[in-house]
Design goal:
Structural class: alpha+beta
Distance between the termini: 19 Å
Helix content: 10-25%
Radius of gyration: 15 Å
Number of domains: 1
Strand content: 35-45%
Number of helices: 3
Shape: elongated
Oligomer: single chain
CATH superfamily: RRM (RNA recognition motif) domain
Length: 94
C-alpha cells in the first residue's frame, strides 16, 4: 500500500472532467502501482469525502521520433472517482 499523499499525483482539470465533476465524478492521475482500494482510501482521507466507486484507466505510452531517434513517452494511470457524498474543493491543492 502506498501512502495517501503518494498515491494521488494531480487532479486532471480539463473542461470535460470539470463538467463531469458536478455529478460527483472526479479524475486523478495516480501512481502506477496504486490499487483501487489505495485510491479510495487516499481520496477519502485527503478530501474528507465518501467514495462510492473507483475506475482505473491504464494509458500506455506512445512511440515518438525526435531528431531521428525513436523513443517512448511515459505510461500513465488515471482514476475516475465517483463520490456518494461530499464535494471536492481543489483550491487548497493536494
Amino acid at each position: 500500500m502506498t501512502q495517501e499523499y503518494d498515491c494521488l499525483i494531480v487532479p486532471v482539470m480539463t473542461e470535460k472532467t470539470m463538467n463531469s465533476g458536478k455529478g460527483g465524478v472526479y479524475v486523478f492521475k495516480v501512481d502506477v502501482n496504486a490499487t483501487k482500494l489505495d485510491i479510495k482510501k487516499s481520496v477519502e482521507k485527503v478530501f474528507d469525502v465518501k467514495v462510492a466507486k473507483v475506475n482505473v484507466l491504464n494509458r500506455g505510452g506512445k512511440k515518438r521520433v525526435f531528431r531521428g531517434k525513436t523513443g517512448k513517452t511515459t505510461s500513465r494511470r488515471h482514476a475516475v472517482v465517483c463520490l456518494s457524498a461530499g464535494v471536492i474543493n481543489f483550491e487548497g491543492g493536494i
